[in-house]
Amino acid sequence: MTYLLISLPFLLLAVVLGVVRRNQAPRQLAVTAIVAAVLLVLTAVFDNLMIWAGLVAYGDAQRLGPQIGLVPIEDFFYPLFVALIVPAFWPGRKQDRK
């Protein structure tokens, strides 16, 4: 099984829940985008360091191939999932909930 097949169902679930529960104001969407960008940058930095230090290794047969530095592209699905799923379940302000 590839890392893509493991990650894709979770990412699709996050996107679907984000769309279904889309009761977010435009400002909240902007905040979600900023948080996603920060998480992706942090993932790029720290995953590169962990792979370089030999703490983590990825099998070539399970990867798609493209990578950013030493990090396989599939590894960026996890922070993207978190950035999408948390706002889907985060309660809005009281005046937003009706």
TrEMBL record:
Pfam families: Lycopene_cyc. GO terms for biological process: carotenoid biosynthetic process. The keyword Isomerase applies. One of its GO terms (cellular component) is membrane. Keywords: Carotenoid biosynthesis, Isomerase, Membrane, Transmembrane, Transmembrane helix. It comes from the Bacteria. The chain crosses the membrane at residues 32-58, 70-90. Pathway: Carotenoid biosynthesis. InterPro entries: Lycopene_cyclase_dom. This is Lycopene cyclase domain-containing protein. It comes from Corynebacterium hylobatis. The lineage of its organism: Bacteria, Bacillati, Actinomycetota, Actinomycetes, Mycobacteriales.
